[in-house]
Amino acid sequence: MTFEQLLFYSFAAVLIAAAIGVITSRNPVHSVLFLVLAFFNSAVLWMLLEAEFLAIVLVLVYVGAVMVLFLFVVMMLDINVARAREGFTRYAPLGALVTIVVAVEIAYVARARQLGVQFFGPPERRSVEYSNTEEIGKVLYTEHVYAFEIAAVILLVAIVAAISLTMRKRPNLKVQDIGKQVATRRGDRVRIVKMKSESPD
Amino acid sequence: MQGFIQMLDPLLSLLPEFLQLVVVAIIKIVVVLLPLILAVAYLTYAERKVIGAMQGRIGPNRVGYKGLLQPFADVIKLLLKEVVVPTNASRFLFVIAPVISIMPAFAAWAVVPLSPEFVIADVDAGLLYVLALTSLGVYGVILAGWASNSKYAFLGAMRSAAQIVAYEIAMGFALVGVLMAGGSLNLGKIIEAQSGSIFTWFWLPLLPLFVIYFISGVAETNRAPFDVAEGESEIVAGFHVEYSGTAFAVFFLAEYANMILISVLAATLFLGGWLSPFQGLPAWLGGESFIAAPGFFWLALKVSLFLFCFLWFRATFPRYRYDQIMRLGWKVFIPVTIVWLFVEGVMVHFKVGPWSA
Q1: In whole angstroms, what is the distance from residue B268 CA to residue B272 CA?
Q2: Which residue of B18, B20, B101, B146 is the best one to mutate when testing the A interface, meaning the one whose CB has the most A CBs within 10 A?
Q3: Interface contact A33-B93, CB threshold 8 A
């Protein structure tokens, strides 16, 4: 076994263990942390495939931003694990069915003639100068530029929709208008009164 | 550095090949990390002295000559204290949170070029790597807050999480501007793209991004005036209120290591890293003498400048109110960076600016 295979198997083992941890741990916060660990290990596996751009972006986007928000939300929620696990036996057959379907699909894709693992073969080794990031950039902004821009527009629409759904004006809410605060002059707040000094009696 | 490793060559050749790589890498890491930890120790001393001077005090002056041994006294005191784990705390997470917060602050140094010859790993996607690692530091803070089983710690963690996520976007956009100008993600190549004179460093053409990057950096490290995660007047000490002894020391170390990291990145990306400010000047101003040569000295000088700014901010600015922090991050910084990226795109298209050559 080469050093690289050793790395692959150890990271893959941790990945699978973390994935199992996600669905078995009792505490939702621990589940989220296991998911973070799983993301990290899959990033390392991509790194072994010399896909360093994807690996780093996975860590940057999912671990660095999405999972932080996940953790944020999960910590604030008061999840009753016992309630959530109610009806386990009732849904178990359906779950088993879905599991079997997914497993069969994965097996089919991995074994099929056109898409199978052996059809692609191992990726060729690149020299040290080869820049994965640059290659992805070249393809993404030339050949696939329409798909890329459509995806960007869809995301923009999603942002606008999410904001417009949650933005509402509540009455009686005290909101500061910072522009107004900055534009305030002394004359708006203070009235200077000139008067003659008076004798004490 | 290369000479030192060559000196070890006869010893190294006794080892198998991959162990040789490992040993060389470990030597390089130690060469970077030991001075870094010392720098962190003396940054705490510098902070107390500088803020003392700004407030008309003396600062530490008892341990050693002019208090120079104060950092060691502090470290020894913290190491000898007991680590108290609160009841009902999530024990494993409580212990691992400081480690998680210091790990990215150290690991990011792997790609930072410290001199024209020396960098631990000269990787291609260095800028992305730095961005990914600095975004991990927030986990330490969140986990510390949650695992402590304390309301104050939890409030601090929540504040910090929202703040870091907000400022990371502006920071990322500022870095996009740098990589557009530098034409590479490799930090060494970004520095080389800035060579010329002090006016071809990226601080001038990317001035708004430079300012936003540094302010976001201050916010990301939870330093004053953005230190609402600690906020001692409202929530005692924020996320690390339950920590004591060594665990607290590690959080402390992480905060200062992060400050140095942000400073070195700002110097690398916007102030030309190890390039000399005398480069490109006429000969009578020293443009051709040895002071125009690039070197680690110039990087250290620029980093000290930024670190002084960190201390200066803490001594002078009152703490931001939380809603104003959010407003600044989302409604001011992000639009400004997006607009400047457009401006920069136009500049690149019409070949204006130092990067057109």
Answers
A1: 5
A2: B146
A3: yes
Q: What is the pLDDT along chain B (357 residues), one digit of tens a residue?
A: 556 666 666 676 777 777 777 888 888 888 888 988 899 989 999 999 999 999 988 888 888 888 888 888 988 988 898 888 888 878 888 888 899 889 988 988 888 888 887 778 778 888 888 888 888 888 888 888 888 888 888 888 888 888 888 888 888 889 888 888 888 888 888 888 888 777 888 888 888 999 999 999 998 888 878 887 776 777 777 778 788 888 888 888 888 999 999 999 999 988 888 888 777 777 777 666 777 777 788 888 899 999 999 899 988 888 888 888 888 888 889 999 999 999 888 888 887 776 654
Residue B308 to residues B59, B112, B263: CA-CA distances in angstroms?
A: 16, 20, 10
Q: Is the pTM of this model over 0.80?
A: yes
Judge if A11 and A79 occupy the same domain: yes
Cα B136 from chain centroid (whole Å): 13
Residue A185 lies in a domain: no
**Beta-carbon separation of A53 and B154 below 8 A:** no
And the tokens for B292? Answer: 């125009």
Interface of A with B (CB under 8 A): 3, 29, 33, 36, 52-53, 56-57, 59-60, 63-65, 68-69, 71-72, 75-76, 131-133, 176, 178
Q: How far is CA B275 from CA B35, B131, B289, B300, in A?
A: 21, 23, 14, 11
Tell whether ipTM is more than 0.90: no
| Structural domain span for residue A118 | 87-122
Tell me if chain A has a CB within 8 Å of the CB of B136.
yes
Query: For residue B72, what are its two tokens?
Result: 């060691």
- Please tell me which of the candidates B129, B165, B323 has its beta carbon nearest to residue A65: B165
A78 and A44 assigned to the same domain: yes
Interface probe for A, chosen from B111, B141, B142, B325 (most Cβ of A below 10 Å), is B142
CA distances from residue B117 to A174, A180, B26, B204, B215 in whole angstroms, order as listed? 58, 54, 17, 26, 30
Task: Verify cis geometry, omega within 30 degrees of 0, for the bond prior to B225.
Answer: yes
The answer to whether the CB atoms of B164 and A68 lie below 8 A apart is: yes
Q: What is the CATH number of the domain that holds A6?
A: 1.20.120.1200
